[in-house]
Write a structure and sequence with these properties.
It is built from 31 helices and six strands. By secondary structure, the chain is mainly alpha-helical. The radius of gyration is 32 Å and the shape is elongated.
């Protein structure tokens, strides 16, 4: 690997000079050729005849061709060296920018790539205790390490490619000039990676490392990815991947080797995904070569790949291998639709033959012998949808026709499909089935962003299909809470967190027709009713991660909403006090509903339950930071009020941002007798915590806006929260009775 000092201190001047010298040679060779024609060939023509003359003119023609070839080779070498200089200079510039960024932000970058936080604020008890500081510093450090590693990988791949290109003798034993010299490092790297994928027999450890480096350095480069995929071919991609993930019986892999294979899975999957999207903006429509590759990949799903035929007569299905790769990167929208239709058709045909997915996909084992990836292809496909919101929304709102029968995608996956159980299906012991992956796909489908990224101020407003799908999810879980399967509740909670305006409108008691003023919705609204919404919240609240997402999402929303109404009293036709009362009561009903879910969960009581729920609050921290930025709902225009004293400790934050950071960290507060922002250890604590959040949100915003005395609102807000909790309890007695009667609660 190219080191930081090597790249930082490299003098690229001689390389630029060499490139210029080689680029000047073609003109010199062309001049020599012209002189040879004039002084030798043309001078002898018409003056020399016979056998000797004929033989001489043949030789002279070869010499003339060599001048041409020399000019071509020199020109191509000049282009190669110029490309190398351009790439190395770009990587050096990126590295130096990162080093400057690290230095300015008080991080020390060591020569071996380690990054150390040397922020002097860590020596100050006051500054180091600033809410969110530790997480922010760690996030920045991780980002620096990731970006430094990527630059060094790209520089290393370019360095090795340049060396290989210059040492390459495409003419073999011929002594002629080489007119097939590479002109770009990208072409070299494509050929190197493709050659490794097409190699007959297993890769050595060194070759696997080399392949990993090439793919990691270029996985998001559309041109490289496209050329690599086309040159390798779909069958060879899947065959070599299967071979890598399925070493012969008795092979013992070290932790480092397993880690490298996991990295290779991610790099190869991302590269192929990038290849499928490489023609998205191509003038003239889809690239025929990319379309052909995608068609081959679809066809490969219907055949088997066996890496060890002498050990077993059974291999892995193409769908299993493709889906395993598909869980990484972002894949083409249209291809995902076709692939999903094919996959459901294959499963339904298997069901018609009496096989459920357990049997059809080969029992409860993981992909290959390395336990990397999912054996159930639907799991990887769901993650592919989870990374492509457009494809996910389209898929869950459409259907497939199998043997003349329409199969609704949502109903099949959410209600009808038997999801195989066993940790091997996902390669994750914490995810015993593919329901986690199903949650990822649904999350991206209704929110409009990938499941593993947080919402932000740039997240677009919900569209009609997204809102309608959210309605369907809420209704489904309300009607049958067993559909909120273990593994997907965190996604359901985050989905609810991003539909808070819609949820609050569903729960409001307002009879004046002002709910659109209380809870503005940008874009299309999910038409939710109180019964389904209450039951949905109670169900998801039973799970710690689902609870945490809703708790933080709702707290961020109502805190921003209080700030909004204080900033814009004209937004509601009535008084600000009426708006504060309505928001607090509705907030109490949401928080009360999930508190009921927690109370009725089967996790346990006391210390065990507290640990589970408080741990979930910590895990939801990054999501909470993102949800703060959505203001009063995705797609809305809202500038939050900066917190009083923002910038202390170097952190500029808003009233809501500061409050959510404290919630995640469980910071103690003084307002209510040293109470704690709680995940709801019991019913009373849940009420006190909800009141504390709203009171602090009001006080922080009002004081920052200079609105004077705000203490009078403490009792008003707390009383309305109390009413909201009573409403939630009443909903349990009313809407929850049939659930209790069926044993589903």
């Amino acid at each position: 690997m190219v080191s930081i000092p090597y790249l930082d201190e490299a003098d690229l001047g001689p390389l630029a000079d060499a490139a210029a010298s080689w680029r000047a040679l073609p003109a010199k060779y062309e001049s020599l050729q012209s002189e040879f024609d004039k002084r030798v060939i043309n001078h002898l023509k018409g003056h020399w005849e016979g056998d000797a003359a004929e033989a001489a003119f043949v030789t002279m023609a070869k010499v003339r061709t060599e001048y041409e070839n020399a000019a071509v080779e020199a020109g191509r070498i000049g282009k190669l060296l110029q490309d190398a200089h351009t790439e190395f200079a770009a990587y050096q510039k990126q590295l130096r920018a990162l080093l400057d960024e690290a230095r300015d932000d008080h991080y020390k970058v060591h020569d071996d790539g380690r990054v150390e936080d040397v922020d002097p604020r860590q020596d100050s008890p006051t500054a180091s205790g600033t809410p969110g500081l530790a997480e922010e510093r760690q996030d920045k450090l991780d980002s620096l390490v990731s970006r430094l590693t990527r630059v060094l990988e790209q520089a290393t791949a370019a360095d090795e490619a340049a060396s290989a290109a210059l040492e390459r003798d495409a003419n073999g034993d011929s002594q002629s000039f080489n007119t097939r010299v590479y002109t770009t490092l990208d072409d070299v790297e494509v050929d190197q990676a493709s050659a490794l994928m097409n190699k007959k027999g297993r890769l050595t450890a060194a070759e696997t490392t080399k392949l990993n480096l090439l793919l990691s350095a270029n996985k998001k480069d559309p041109e490289f990815s496209r050329d690599f995929a086309v040159k390798t071919g779909a069958d060879n991609v899947l065959s070599k991947y299967n071979e890598l993930m399925s070493p012969p019986a008795g092979t013992t892999l070290s932790k480092a080797e397993l880690a490298q294979l996991k990295e290779l899975k991610a790099n190869l999957g991302t590269t192929i995904g990038t290849a499928t999207t490489s023609d998205d903006h191509r003038k003239g429509g889809p690239d025929p070569a990319v379309t052909k590759f995608q068609d081959e990949l679809l066809a490969a799903g219907r055949r088997d790949f066996n890496a060890n035929p002498t050990e077993s007569s059974y291999g892995l299905n193409g769908y299993q291998l493709t889906s395993s790769l598909m869980s990484e990167g972002k894949w083409d929208t249209d291809f995902l639709q076709d692939y999903g239709d094919d996959l459901i058709t294959a499963e339904r045909n298997g069901a018609n033959a009496g096989q459920n997915p357990d049997a059809y996909w080969g029992g409860s084992h993981s992909l290959g012998t390395t336990n990397i990836g999912a054996l159930d292809p639907m799991a990887g496909y769901m993650d592919a949808l989870g990374h492509n919101p457009e494809a996910s929304t389209e898929f869950f709102t459409s259907d497939t026709t199998v043997d003349g029968e329409k199969v609704d995608h949502y109903d099949y996956l959410m209600k009808d499909r038997h999801w195989p159980e066993g940790a091997g299906y996902t390669g994750d012991a914490k995810n015993p089935s593919g329901y986690d992956n199903l949650g990822h796909a649904l999350e991206s489908a209704v929110t409009g962003h990938s499941y593993d990224s947080s919402p932000s101020a740039d997240t677009p407003a919900h569209n009609e299909k997204q809102a309608a799908l959210m309605e369907r999810v809420v209704q489904s879980v309300s009607e049958d809470d067993e559909l909120a399967h273990d593994g997907m509740q965190d996604s359901l909670g985050r989905m609810a967190g991003e539909y808070m305006p819609d949820i609050h409108q569903a729960l409001t008691n307002d009879q004046s027709g002002n709910k659109d003023q209380f809870y503005p919705v940008s874009g299309d609204q999910a038409q939710l009713d109180e019964r389904d919404t209450s039951r949905f919240l109670m169900t998801v609240g039973k799970d710690p991660d689902g609870y945490a997402a809703i708790n933080l999402g709702e707290s961020a929303y109502t805190s921003n909403l209080i700030d909004y109404h204080l900033q814009h009293p004209e937004a509601f036709d009535g008084s600000t006090e009426t708006a504060m009362r309505e928001i607090s009561r509705s907030s109490g009903e949401v928080q009360g509903s999930i508190a009921i879910g927690r109370r009725e969960s089967d996790i346990g009581t006391g210390v065990e339950a507290d640990k589970a729920y408080n741990g979930a609050m910590g895990r939801a921290g990054s999501y909470a930071s993102g949800i703060v930025g959505t203001g009063i709902g995705v797609g809305t225009s809202f500038i939050a009020t900066p917190a009083v004293g923002a910038g202390v400790g170097g952190l500029a934050t808003t009233v809501t941002g500061d409050l959510i950071n404290q919630m995640v960290e469980g910071t103690q507060r003084d307002t209510l007798g040293d109470k704690v922002y709680s995940s709801g250890a019991d019913w009373e604590n849940a009420k006190l915590s909800t009141s504390a959040v709203l009171q602090d949100a009001y006080r922080g915003s009002a004081e920052a806006q200079g609105k004077g005395e705000v203490a009078d609102y403490n009792n008003i807000l707390a009383n309305e929260v109390e009413q909201g909790f009573h409403s939630a309890e009443s909903n349990l007695e009313g809407y929850g009775q049939d659930k209790r009667g069926t044993g589903q609660g």
